[in-house]
Write a structure and sequence with these properties.
652 residues; alpha+beta; Porin; 16-stranded antiparallel β-barrel; 22 helices; elongated
Length: 652
């Protein structure tokens, strides 16, 4: 027991002596000279520096350095660290000497020993990490700096260096986390905000990117740089309307930013605001008069904003300087075709195909012009039969010629036949028609038509018709016509001439992509003081746009004679007859050469319901030849009709 107490007293005495020594070292720096402080990194080093032998070795090595003998000093320090491997300060001095004498690999080894000996030495870690970076050991550098940033959490410099390493080593998750920390430490670092927003976008987090930039703009509305970044984020994430708002704000503050004007003009075009794009594109061209892409875009903007007549000028200006520019030649041909100048477009496309025979787009446009404007012959058969046993047949042979974009001509010879089942009689004859159409513009035209017919009774009626067509905004189409003819509808039609004057108005409106409305109204007066009114209204709604197309329709028709005569020809209807129909039609393209269509409708006349059907078939013989057949039944037991139509047409 006494022995144990003696040992305890001795240990207490030793602890007391060590404590006094520590207090002395801390409170009296005179005990450690400047050289000792330089090489003493920790308390262990300080005690070691009190060793006379160790102190002499350090002094000898430092003297060699002062005398310029660095290689000998290196050798001495290598001996020191070999003998005293835990002395951190000697490792640092050796690393310094290695760096001065172009031995970076050995310097790295020294710092690795230092960090191993003192894991809290952030300065050594930073130096070692920098050496790792120089030696392309970036993953090792990342591991070290991740430890440093724990020791120095507020060091922006280390956070940014880590972010650069994450970026260069494809570590997006850690990179985003690092950018977030940098922004938290420095909310004015707009460059990092920009990078963070971009990385959010690449990491499929666009809303976070936008949120960051929106918050910044709310606090700094005059920051055009960030506003531009925000607009681009909107643009990349299909929020173009928001992008336009910010692009417009930037232009207000910097109205000479041509690069941004180009972006805004493109956004206007993509958002169906071509009229707003026009002044921007014109301003761009004022600064860059040779900008071919801008001139092409201006031409497109003119077309899309219903200024097609102005679209050609910028393209013609290009061709004056570059007559063999195939891209501009094609664009001009497209503009001319869209503006109704198909003849000029045809010339351009033929020239383009001589320069570039494999240009499929030019060949396709030329084919389209031929399909729409090529001169064509046509053979047609038309038959209508009604429930009053009256039938009219027509077999016209027609030739249509498109002389140029202003003038179109139609010549027709026809065979007629009227069958009256009530009287068991037939009236046959033939006739001819000539019509001329003048296109004032792509949206406005007029037609004048003359016709003559000869029947078996040697009665030869003449007819005259004039009509005016107008199109508004590519959505509304109107047709107004006046006609005067001799007719067989009337009490004296079998024994003398009945003159007919009539007016007809037609309207079609494409309300939306799926929904359309149409209607027509006809008022006819006869020389025997009779009159006839015909009115029709129809609505179509597409419920399936792709193949096969499906649409529902509703229609209402009204026909009224002032006086009805039992001996009238070619057919008659009950007085004040209204017909309402509701149905479903389909249109199916089996292939490029075969099209089928048909449908069903329920019709009502004076509370009598009836089931009606229609069908059609189109066969494309080739690109320019087509055969078509159609059958339509409509009405009820009160009055119904069956219509048959067949024709063959070929374009040259």
């Amino acid at each position: 027991m006494r022995t144990r107490q003696c040992v305890k007293r001795k240990l207490n005495k030793i602890s007391f002596i060590l404590l006094l020594l520590l207090i002395t070292l801390i409170t009296q720096p005179d005990y450690i000279n400047a050289q000792e402080q330089l090489f003493a990194d920790n308390l262990g080093d300080l005690f070691l520096m009190r060793s006379g032998e160790f102190k002499a070795k350090i002094k000898e090595a430092e003297a060699l350095i002062e005398n310029g003998n660095q290689f000998q000093a290196i050798a001495e320090y290598e001996k020191i660290v070999e003998e005293y491997p835990d002395h951190v300060s000697s490792w640092k001095r050796l690393a310094q000497l290695y760096n001065r004498n172009d031995k970076p690999e050995k310097s790295v080894t020294c710092y690795e020993k230092i960090v191993e000996a003192n894991p809290l030495d952030s300065q050594a870690m930073k130096i070692l990490a920098q050496n790792y970076i120089r030696n392309d050991r970036q993953k090792d550098a990342i591991n070290l700096l991740e430890k440093v940033v724990v020791l120095e959490p507020d060091s922006l410099r280390i956070h940014k260096k880590l972010a650069r390493l994450y970026s260069g080593n494809n570590m997006p998750k850690k990179l985003i986390n690092q950018y977030e920390k940098i922004v938290q430490l420095d909310s004015t670092d707009t460059q990092t905000m920009k990078k963070l927003a971009a990385n959010y976008s690449w990491d499929k987090k666009p809303l976070l990117a936008i949120k960051i930039l929106e918050a910044f703009i709310n606090n700094h509305p005059d920051s055009l740089h960030i506003r531009r970044e925000l607009a681009e984020q909107y643009e990349w994430n299909d929020m173009s309307k928001n992008a336009i708002i910010h692009y417009e704000e930037i232009i207000k503050r910097d109205f000479n930013d041509i690069k941004l004007m180009k972006k805004l003009a493109q956004q206007y075009m993509w958002n169906n605001r071509s009229a707003d794009a026009v002044p921007l594109l014109r301003k761009i061209l004022f600064s860059e008069p040779e900008n071919i892409d801008c001139k092409i875009q201006l031409a497109n903007a003119y077309v899309c904003s219903n200024q097609a007549e102005r679209a050609e000028r910028p393209l013609l200006e290009i061709l004056q300087k570059q007559p063999y520019n195939k891209e501009v030649m094609l664009s001009l041909a497209e503009r001319q075709q869209e503006s109704g100048k198909w003849d000029l477009a045809k010339q351009k496309l033929k020239k383009l195909l001589r320069l570039d025979p494999n240009n499929e787009k030019a060949r396709e446009l030329l084919t389209g012009i031929r399909r729409q404007y090529g001169t064509f012959p046509e053979a047609r058969y038309y038959r209508i039969s009604d429930s009053n046993k009256l039938t009219r047949e027509q077999l016209p042979l027609t030739a249509a010629c498109f002389f140029n974009r202003q003038w179109e001509y139609v010549f027709s010879a026809a065979h007629y036949r009227v069958l009256d089942g009530r009287l068991d009689s037939t009236l046959a004859g033939y006739g001819a028609k000539v019509a001329a159409k003048y296109n004032y513009s792509p949206n406005t035209s007029s037609v004048v038509e003359f016709a003559v017919a000869n029947y078996s009774t040697n009665w030869t009626p003449l007819s005259f018709q004039i009509q005016f067509n107008q199109r508004f905004f590519d959505k509304i189409y109107t047709n107004v016509r006046y006609f005067r003819t001799e007719t067989r509808e009337g009490v004296r039609a079998l024994t003398g001439k009945i003159l007919l004057d009539g007016y007809r108005g037609e309207l079609y409106c494409q309300v939306t992509k799926r929904w359309s409305l149409s209607g027509d109204y006809t008022f006819q007066t006869y020389s025997d003081k009779n009159r006839k009114i015909i009115a029709n209204a129809r609505s179509n709604f597409l419920i399936k746009l792709n193949n096969p197309k499906l649409y529902i329709f509703g229609c209402h028709s009204f026909i009224d004679f002032k006086n009805i005569y039992s001996g009238s020809l070619p057919y008659w209807t009950p007085e004040a007859l209204s017909t309402s129909s509701l149905g479903l039609n389909f249109d199916l393209n089996f292939s490029s050469w075969l099209n089928l269509g048909g449908g069903y409708s329920l019709a009502n006349q004076r509370t009598i319901n009836s089931h009606n059907f229609n069908g059609q078939m189109g066969i494309n013989i080739n690109r320019y030849g087509k055969f078509f057949f159609q059958y339509v039944k409509n009405g009820s037991k009160i009055y119904n009709t069956e219509n048959y139509l067949a024709y063959f047409q070929y374009r040259f």
